[in-house]
Amino acid sequence: MENNYSKIISGAVGIGERQVAATITLLDEGATIPFIARYRKEKTGSLDEVQIADIQAYYGKLQELSKRKETIYARLDELQITDPELRKRIENCWDATELEDIYLPYKPHKKTRADIAIEKGLLPLAEEILKQRPMRLPGNEEDLQGARDIIAQRIAEDERSRNAMRREFTYSAVLTSKAVKTKAEEPEAQNYKIYFDFKSPLKYVKSHQLLAIRRAEAEGFLRVDISPDTEKALDKLARIWLKANNDTAYQVELAMEDSYKRLLKPSIETEFAAMSKEKADQEAIRVFADNLRQLLLGAPLGQKRVLALDPGFRTGCKTVVLNELGDLLMHDVIYLHNLQSTKRLQELIKQYQIEAIAIGNGTASRETEEMAREVTKGLSANGYSAPQIYVVSEAGASVYSASKIAREEFPDEDVTVRGAVSIGRRLIDPLAELVKIEPKSIGVGQYQHDVDQTQLRDSLQQTVESVVNYVGVDVNTASKHLLTYISGLGPALAQNIVDYRSQNGAFKSRKELLKVPKLGNKTFEQAAGFLRLKGANPLDNSAVHPESYGIVEKMAKDQGCSVTDLIADEEKRKKIDLNRYVTAEVGIPTLTDILKELAQPGRDPRGETEEFHFDESVHKIEDLQVGMVLPGIVTNISAFGAFVDMGIHKDGLIHVSRMRGRTLKLHQHVRVQIEEIDIKRQRISLAINN
What we know:
It contains 28 helices and 15 strands. Strand 14 and strand 15 (683-688) form a beta hairpin. The two termini are 56 Å apart. By secondary structure, the protein is of the alpha/beta class.
């Protein structure tokens, strides 16, 4: 069976069979997606991470299907069914729905009306009626009903019937939702008011609509139905089952109508409800993963001294000072609109030589930012180099502050201090800090509690792993939480690396990683290219894999210089003829990557962070006017639009129809125009302003 996997997957995902086979082999050998995509391009034909992940996902489905077949074979053995044609069909079937249809007549089930009728000896009568030849029907209605029950189940379990109904559902099924009258006036139900009388072809229902409808249904506010046109559905069944126009055919027709209403329609509706939900889940998870990727790739400020403020009115602003590495130096509480607080902030900035101020974007963020700007203006007026001010997303900070990780890092501090530290560290390096938080708690998606939790976890985990390996990490400064996501490592080896570093000092070369307990050659192969360190060999601080060091050394030798000189001299690199270094294992794709890396070794791909200012004349929704153009920051992106923070404690929405062809990114700085304001519902409609 496994020999067919490559061919089946190739046809399903549209990737060459040889590429699929090579990818499966690498996956079976324990290679990770980032490693395969970055360092095995010759074997896969330069497949990217998305393509490799698609192959991996489909491969997993086929393996599960193989396990399901074993269960089915065992059931057939139990029933002593040895039909070779049946077993051949099962063996050649690689579609989950088709496989279940084949198995349906043999599947264990609760006793049905048809089973009871068969026990009464009515199977021969049902068989005769199905032939639809003229015959004398029994006068006993109970016997006729039993025969019809047997026929109804036969129709419902027949593959032709099920496939015909699937086609009808595919092309004409309509999703309808109605309010549950007894609960329609409840406050929570008002969130779903637009679905109180909703009707749409199922194929046109959008992901966010379906997830909202299903959530409302689960909460008891809506009744939902998915149905095709009944007459058309019955007509399709009639073409399969009705062969005559007589009394026996009429009995079959009655059984067919009963089968559709009682068995077939509910079964296929359940199937399509699950399929449409799965499709909606996939779209929602894709959006969530895209947003998470953008958030994790947020530009780092870098190693600078930071003063972080977690805003608050009543309890004050929790204030922490962090050194260049994000270590906590001190903490305090500062209150808004207080002269002593202003002086205290100035003292801290001077005492600790603060280079940047990070302010959480929660409640009182705007007021805290204004206080900080007054402080920096006062410092500048007195000739002091004032720090820049940045508003930082607090998403997930409260989750982190109460987590086991936070307790391990700051066992003697309370949650407010930990939260403020997280805000400051996010400015220094958002990726290093955000990996400590469960991805779905970061809050950059919608309906994360409604989608398939296993798929969501796997997708977000894969996204974090992809980003961490794309950026690369410094093995001598990275936390165990960051190292955990490096290709081939995981929690145990990440901890071993940190322990080794604590006992032996900083790693002096990548090769020294092999001295870490339980980190063998295979793990080294998977991880080394994504780990960086500044040592004697400049390639150790690049994305060039150690297995390719010899190639770079030969390039340098051929140019009559050292590796260091080759990295520094663009003209020498331009003279390199890559074709001279092609081997059976290393081709032009890898050699091209090596040359690109030599041009900018160790470059952080995340760019640089930018300072941002809200409009100083706007503080609350009542300050807005239609037509006003304001600066804002994109805080979330959904399938239907983007949410933008304008500094008024309520995000506005740019609907996709008002983006004017622009593709927005999380935390992007934009200018938006106010199109509509609904103060009662606290809703603001925006348009992108080019």
